[in-house]
Please model this.
Amino acid sequence: MKVLAVNPGSTSTKIAVYEDETPHLLRNIRHSVEELAEFPRIIDQFEFRKNLVMDELKANGIPFDFDAIVGRGGLLKPIPGGVYEVNDVMLDDIAHAMRSHACNLGCLIASELAALLPDCRAFIADPGVVDELEEIARITGSPLMPKITIWHALNQRAIARRFAAEQGTRYEDLDLIICHLGGGISVGTHCHGRAIDVNNALDGEGPFSPERAGTLPAGQLIDLCNSGRYTKDELKKRISGRAGLTAHLGTTDVQAIVRRIEEGDTHAELVLNAMIYQIARSVGAAATVLYGKIDAILLTGGMAYSNYIISRLEERVSFLAPVYVYPGEDELEALALNALGALRGELPIQVYQ
Model:
């Protein structure tokens, strides 16, 4: 079985070609700010990114003869985890999605490219809107605003399965707390194969991150919204995009911030330590969901490469459960393996409706 995986991100398009479980091509195509500035909306980048994928395959002599093309899932309506075949309902929902993110391009590219081949199927897997919350976790202090989840479902599940395999068990038999530490931060509580509680890592819940504000004081936010100082779009950016570390310190580069700390920047030290503090506090809260019975805490994502962050986070949470670190993300491999499982009949193919 031959699979093409496509993972559009905010500043890159990652692609992989797998024949069965063997990767034959892994590419991270980076996009400059100037390149993307030509497109008023993210959805307008579709042709640009699709053509880059095709060009990369040609440049590497990869024949265009796939059994499946799997894209990163977009910000659709809340759905259970798993593999979904791209259909017209999904494409229409993406075209009218309320939230804008480059991941929305994944199913569009997969569908368009798969249509060029007679027997090729288009899939998505574990999109960021996967919702398996227990009902008690949905209740907030206002019936007008029930809790929603937008999180790093694909990577968290991939890391969970990887950890389970290393331990000689199954993801479905474990109780885990998994922290994805990237541009956004999601802290998921996984109970026997379901993420029963997890924060909205995109637009306003949980710890602040390099790009996102996390939970904010509601009263002050309402006052700011009515101050006349910012437009709605500007305020949205203050929550996701120009928030978190970049709002406080002018950069999302953790290594650069650590260098500033080593050179004596006490403000940078306070802000970075505050982010670590908030992550640890979220892990502690997640522990109560599992009644303190936790098999492991898994730390993943790009910031998991930082010894500064990981060492301080472990100091605060290791008393709860053993901590395992998986730097980076396995999203391309996870996409490919999900598609292979669907093609082989090992994973059910769900219908988006």
User: Anything to note?
Assistant: The radius of gyration is 20 Å. The longest strand covers residues 22-30. The chain has a mean pLDDT of 95. The longest helix spans residues 266-289.
